[in-house]
Amino acid sequence: MERRDFIQNALIGIAGTVTATAVGRHALASVPEPIFQPNAGTAPPWRGPETTGDNARYRPVVTLNGWTLPYRMNEGVKEFHLVAEPVVREMSPGFKVNMWGYNGQSPGPTIEVVEGDRVRIFVTNRLPEKTTIHWHGQRLPNGMDGVSGLNQTPIPTGKTFVYDFVAKRPGTFMYHPHADEMTQMAMGMMGFWVTHPKSKHPNISEVDRDYCILLNAFDVEPGSKTPKVNTMLDFNIWSFNSRVYPGLSPLVAKLGDRVRIRIGNLTMTNHPFHVHGIEFEVTGTDGGPVPASARWPEVTADIAVGQMRQIEFVADEPGDWAVHCHKSHHTMGAMGHDVPTMIGLNHLGLVREIQKIVPDYMVMGERGMYDMKEMEMELPPNTIPMMTGTGPYGPIGMGGMFTTLKVREDQKPDDYSDPGWYKQPAGTQAYEYKGKLPAVNRNGADQPGSGQTGSLPAPSVDVGNAQVRKPSQSTSGSHKH
Ligand SMILES: [Cu+2]
Polar residues bias: where (predicted)? Predict the structure, then answer.
């Protein structure tokens, strides 16, 4: 072929391409460009056009270690584009897990709209199997409810389906597949949905901070990277928004802020969600806002499987307060099962001998499991220690479903950055008692009415001669001194 012909053909080719592209672009113009999130950080609140100025319709939420999906307005319809796809989620620094999610992360982006909005969601399936999305809790036409086989045919790999409905009622919602849901949810497919009220609502407060947390769980064998999908109850990674402490951002508030936390549970067990330092009220459930007359104070709200709860409080106590699931094994990292209790056994020396035969052998805490944090443990690669996170006073001893509520006098409105560790004012922190301890005489102490305990000598304080027992000394037989 002569060079001139080649160029001629190439030009025809280009012309042909241009035509095809023009058609393609026209068709594509009806689908919003998908937006992807490259990292697991906490994105600042998404300041859409309805969140600023005098006519602002709502104060945007903040999804802990997540983000809000921007929309496109198309003739009065808010259009979103979700892409279901395999993702790699960094659950905690250095601990990466192969998951399935949406738009680059698990959970997927939060969808945030206003009551009465017409919403159109394009869902593109880039998974190796069929999927759907169910809009958990929403009022919508039956054909939009997303149960495969019941309401629609599932979305085949490579295809895009459209969900189109009006966000009828304000509240906290979730989305997740209703197609091979055990696999797809075990792999991390889920997301949050918030519908703000269109006008002042008698049972919905305006708040200064509005957080979203999805409770989720995975079963990742220590040293592996992909969750097991046949696990029914024995999950070993308990997470907020597919992150575990210390990979979770703090919930920050300015002193006096009214704070809302929206919590959804897409694990297979209940989670008593516990906040230190304040009392809260449950102001909303799956079914909508709770009337003020029906609320009561709590410091723990149990969130059952498939439920959503909104809790609210005034952050009027400065400090770093723990926020965690109260099931203690849910604030721990990857554990093997069938672990014997080793409290009271001295393993030193023995461990090294056993490890010659069983290289993975680990000591499960001869003084309780707190040891685990202080010990330099050899762990399989890509495994989080069982309990992680270090505070200003040493290991926190909790991971998993744990983070902090950081209340500060000088936190700026709309500032969600970590203010660092709280410095307790002098005289307001637990301190070591350095006086003498009373002798304990247990003989007769168990006899009712013996009065033995009351007759023990009062402790004599002698700060100058502090007696600090070394941990290696026996903790039994305290009657000897
Ligand atoms: Cu829990």
Answer: 470-481
